[in-house]
Queue: 2 jobs
Job 1
Amino acid sequence: MSLPSRVDYSPEAAELLLKLTKINGPLMFHQSGGCCDGSSPMCYLKGEFRVGGSDVLIGELVIPRMNEPVEVWMSATQFEYWKHTHLTIDVVDGRGGGFSLESPEGKRFLIRSRLFSDVEWALLENSPVQTGA
Amino acid sequence: MTDFIAPGQPGSKVTYASRYDHWINGEYVKPDSGQYFENVTPVTGKVFCEVARGNAKDIDKALDAAHAAAPAWGKTSATERAIILNKIADRMEANVEAIAVAETWENGKPVREALYVDIPLAIDHFRYFAAAIRAQEGSAGELDNDTVAYHFHEPLGVVGQIIPWNFPILMAVWKLAPAIAAGNCVVLKPAEQTPVSILFLMDIIKDLLPPGVVNIVNGFGVEAGKPLASSPRIAKIAFTGETTTGRLIMQYASENIIPVSLELGGKSPNIFFNDVAAENDAFYDKALEGFTMFAVNQGEVCTCPSRGLVEAKIYDKFMGDVTARTKAIKMGNPLDLSTMMGAQASTDQLEKILSYLDIGKKEGAKVITGGERADLGGELAGGYYVMPTIFEGNNKMRIFQEEIFGPVVSVTKFDGFDNAMEIANDTLYGLGAGVWTRDMNTAYRAGRAIQAGRVWTNCYHAYPAGAAFGGYKASGIGRENHKMMLDHYQQTKNLLVSYSPNKLGFF
């Protein structure tokens, strides 16, 4: 039985990711924490943000009509506090967000969360997560 | 009718221009792209001006101006620079109401905070660094009879600064005052949510600074912030924001081998020991206010006391009293002096707070009060308002671990000193903390045990110049608000001088 996904995307997010890919090229996310624009998924050109052993790959968004999946990363320490929740990358109107690529579009990626069900969690609890090392 | 009239209305203390260009080399310069973006007031959700949309070429233009100004500015005497800083402070003081209203209109905060806290602190900050730079001295070390090590402070040259939107003027001044006091020239990128209140201030003080010393380029982070942070032409980058962008900025800085200072937020515990409620007196009343400080600036403060830790014995009584205090928070038009809590700074910030109210409920946290968006009706119906919210839960919940940056406090009970410290330190961050007790031995031990850069003891949210501010752990690198900040903006030059006429004898 395959593992349930930890991260998903809304149709609006997929549409914006397609647009941003056309403008910029292949993309990645790194989930932020902390102040001001924190707790937002930051969208970068793939490889722009250097991930390493202190980051975990929480999922790859496979989006129709996109050649490459969009990797979603988070720092490993932050993941410890987030791992029991399923994340959906959504979009709202807005601006800003560090150097994230969507802000010139007047949009902002936003995380929506839910608790994993008992069935999902039983499968995920002890399954390893890949680091960037 | 509000106490202060909205900018642009007849009789207002503030008239914003309809369009703002970049401030480069002492004048307004049109953006290279010819493009502008709309600036919205969160008070009503309506557009009130347009702002230049900067790009790498605008940043380069600003860096040209800063580099042209840097040699002369770096050689001005500390006395001259201090006089200019003091004049800026005097000019701001003479215009404090206008600056406060301008900031409130752009950011949404209650005008009483801008008027009595943010802008007076900004004014004092210029005076503090005027004094600090005058009093700073190098040193002469007599290493032996014939050898002296002289140490001189030299400016770094041209520095980049990226400013957050929660205190658009105060946070800019925290970075600007030490940088220019130390003899540097600056290229500053305001947050795109609050791009013009700093230009409103610049218009008031612009004749006091030589052209090119302070340059301000607006725009989106990816288009203007990134070219600034990654430029090989800056000698330092200072950033207040969040962890992912902080890491990216360090990554760019590593390519240019320049120092960074970072302030990246927190999840500050505010700890109330049993003895707080020993008497129903002024101190107890102060402690209740201290808890309610989570609503300051609508919670949009890096040090928001967003985790309330209350000792078991007083839990029920204390929570009853702070809930009543929280329910008494008056929301309303930020331009009214009686308004205690205004609007969240932007629509996406509002959305993020609402998403956290949602996950808090889903994780089983109990809403004690608030928990939803507030509709204030009338002309404020389109504004971004959230009810002050108290959650009850446990420290493993995400609302206890992530900075919501809204008027939301997550409360849990603790049992004894060790348990309090364990919960307080169970966080990725370490920026601020509060400790409340009548026993100064407990206060001292708690203050030293908490892994945070600032531990308010029987107070909260005070930011006087002279008290170092900065983070442990993931909350960042470096300190602000203290004369040690001058070190972040200076090189150390050592002249090692031999006064001996005799050779060593090696060759």
Job 2
Amino acid sequence: MASVTLTDVRKVYHGGVEAVRGVSFEVADGSFCVLVGPSGCGKSTLLRMIAGLETISGGTVRIGERVVNAIEPADRDIAMVFQNYALYPHMSVYDNMAYGLRNRGTPKAEIDARVREAARILDVEPYLDRRPKALSGGQRQRVAMGRAIVRKPQVFLFDEPLSNLDAKLRVQMRVEIKRLQRSLGVTSIYVTHDQVEAMTLSDQLVVMNAGQVEQIGTPTELYRRPATRFVAGFLGSPAMNFIPAVLRDDGAVSVGERRVAVSAGAGGGRAGLPVELGIRPEDLRVAASAPGTLPLEIEFVEELGATQLIHGRIDGVAATVQVATGAAPTEGTLALAVEPAATHLFEPESGRRL
Amino acid sequence: MEKRAVFGNRALPYALLAPQIAITLIFFYWPAAQAVRQSFLVEDAFGLSTEFVWFENYIHLFTDPGYYRTLWTTVVFSTAVTVMSLSVALLLAVMADREIKGATGYRTLLIWPYAVAPAVAGVLWIFMLDPSLGIIAQGLRRLGIDWNPRLNGTHAMIQVVLASSWKQISYNFLFFLAGLQAIPKSVIEAAAIDGARPWRRFWTIILPLLSPTTFFLVVVNIVYAFFETFGTIDAMTGGGPAKATETLVYKVYADGRLGGDLGGSAAQSVILMAIVIGLTAIQFRFIERKVTY
């Protein structure tokens, strides 16, 4: 096992395109780190640099104590699970899993023991003699994982491993990956664009945007205290509401003519500054119309079963509120009360949290 | 979706097929039938009398040591051409598959030799390998090799193998390149992470995944070496010296056109026809089953 440390890692392609612009973070030994961000944010490039499949233009990548910048993928003691599984189509499941061990000259008996153990853990024992072509998507995914775990590497790398699976299987495999990682205790770095996967899997969450790290922390930290408007909007489903407001000097903001109390300490002596007020749909409460409530003109309702998402507009700005089914009228105008502790303020220009 | 086309008029499908069928009948079946008929006949040298002799031409062929020698020459020649053109093409394709600057231009240049007519290819190589004029021959002489394809049968064979392979490399290159590009990049990357060095990756991953392409090309190249190298051989050596480069197809021409033995030549053609049919059958059978995986 080993930690992974990135120091100011950069990737510049021919022609000057900067895919990764100075990323630094550390993944503690045995922890599960998820890199999440929209497509094109550089997260896959970063993972491939850790794997050694892309050259590193600047900075250093360490696995354990060793700087691996100039080390071949084979010698980095990592295993990677690819989005399209990348199984060897001409080999049986057994040979797919044994390939990496054979390349390293592992004794035959040990290869056999390890492959059978992995097959047992992953529930693919009946398919050991089959070719990948004869397996379902979920089974192929398991074989790809098996290929990674038989090697007993120091680090697992996952490149959007679940995105080719259907929704139900994805949830199931997500749980299995988490369980497997817990029981093996191998340091893992996982790339995804799916914020639900990111939240559920990670011990440490790294949100990336435009080649840079927006914020690093535990999923709860990032969800509760997003450092930027981007992180606030990216994590959480349904997404956070952003309402234009103006900072006041009495621990509140003005939304239109209304005074809305916000979390203590925000702003501080910068009255008159335009800000964005962020509130999660579940943090809005339906209340009686009163000063300090926000009026939502209802447009339509999405039914989720136990809860409803009511979509509408507050002063013309699109907003959503999540309520227990039947707890609120579904047409007309709703008065929404804001819990001051659940508010987030962002500078419109920089997107930083105030 | 209805896959079968349905015609309202019964005559229309036949009318549409007629040109293709006519071409096949006139340019393939008719000459083939002529050849089979001719192979049962013996004609005198002046074409004045013709005698029906049943299988005498075939019996004559199969008891002639010269025919077996030509068969052996053909096997050696075809194997050499196939192995050489496939291996060089594969090497070039692997090189061209990597991301390098000017790859497009490089690939286009590699395709050019295919457009060169066989006889012209032969002449090109004659100039380079000519014992008195050729630059390669001069170089060899300087190395102490007495290069003389006009007198030395082995040298002549090397010469026709070189020219014939060179022409076929382009074709093989195209197929190998397409085959290589069809291999998912992530599979190669997975192998790299799995600890396979480039050489081992090539043998254990790339080559097996290319096997359908390779098999197809082996058959195509054997057919090429058997039947389409006539022009090259004729221009370079004329089958000599002392029949050292005479392949089965060249012998058909030499015996029939030059030797005037039309019946024997026709019998050889019929045998060649059987070989082509055999090769094609093998190809269809295995291609449909998809080799290896």
